[in-house]
C-alpha cells in the first residue's frame, strides 16, 4: 500500500484531474473506481486537503476507512434451533469461510446486556486516577488505560486508543472490583453477565465439537473446560481523537488468542475483519451490527487445534469519530490443557502444522508480547 504515497499531490490543492489520476493509480482507489468514482471524489478531496507530507500512513488509514467496501453480513447461527447437526454444519462452514459469525436467540435477555453497558459506562466515566487504582494485575484482572496496549505487535504506531477492564473467572478471588460506594451494582451485574455468556460459550463449544466430527462433549472430556480461563473484557473507544492520535487504531489488527470470543457491541461501527491476512494490499471489511446478536469468532488456540481448518481471522477496530462500547468474552481452555492437532483435522496428506503446546504457555506469551510494546 506504500505505493500510494508518491501519488499524493504535495500542493494540497488537487484538481479533479489529479484526483482522478490518484484514484486510478492507487490500488485501493482502483478497486473503488468500479463502484462509482464520482461519489468518492468529495471524500478524496477532503482527505487530500489535510497535511499529508509526512503522514502517509494516517492518510491511508483514513482512506481505507472512508472507502472501505460495503459491510460484511456474516453467517447467522440460530442457537435456539433443535436441529443440532444442521446448526453444527452451518458453524463449520462459517468457521472455515470467515472465522466469524453472528449468534441469535442465544437466550441472554436484552436487559442484561443493557445493564452491562450501563455499568461499563459508569466505570469508564470515573476519573483516570480512580480507574488506575484498579490497574491490571499480574493475573490480568482490572483496568488498562488508553495507549497501554498495542494489539498489532508489528505496528510502528504504538498504543491503541481503547481503554478496557478485565474480569476473570468469577469463582476465584483474583478479580478487582470498583468500590461498592462508587458503583454499587457493578460486581453483581458483571457476575450475572459472566455466568450467562459462559453458558452460551459452552453451548457453542459443544456445537463446534460436532462441527469437527467429534463427540459433542469432546472438550469437556479432555478436561479443557474444567476451570476454563473465561475473561470478560469491557472496552471503551474514544469519540473525538486529538490530531496527535490520528493514524492510531481503537484496537489495532490482531487475531484473538484463545478458543472462541463472544462479543457484544453498542451498535457503533468500527469493527473490521480481514479474511486473507497474507493478501496484499489487505482487504478490510466492516462488520454490520445485528440487533441482539452476538458476534463470535475463532481464536488462535482453536485454529491450532483444528490445524487451520477453522480460521482465527485478523480483525481491528478503527476510530470512526464516535464513542463506542463493547464487551468481549474470551473463552480459553484451562492453562494446563495441552493443545495439539485434533485427530479429525489431520491426515497423511495434511500433517499437523503446529507442535503440541500448553494452553497457559501460549496465552501468557501472547499477553506478554501485547504489553511489552
Ligand atoms: O470492540 C470490538 O469490537 C472488538 C474487540 C476485540 O477485538 C478484542 O478485544 O479482542
Ligand atoms: Fe479481538
From TrEMBL:
KW Acetylation (keyword) present: no
Keywords tagged on the record: Iron, Metal-binding, Oxidoreductase
A GO MF label: metal ion binding
Entry keyword ATP-binding: no
PROSITE patterns: FE2OG_OXY
Coiled-coil stretches: none
UniProt-listed InterPro entries: DIOX_N, IPNS-like_FE2OG_OXY, IPNS-like_sf, Oxoglu/Fe-dep_dioxygenase_dom
Residue ranges of domain Fe2OG dioxygenase in the record: 227-333
Similarity-based family: Belongs to the iron/ascorbate-dependent oxidoreductase family.
Protein's UniProt name: 2-oxoglutarate (2OG) and Fe(II)-dependent oxygenase superfamily protein
Annotated source species: Rhynchospora pubera
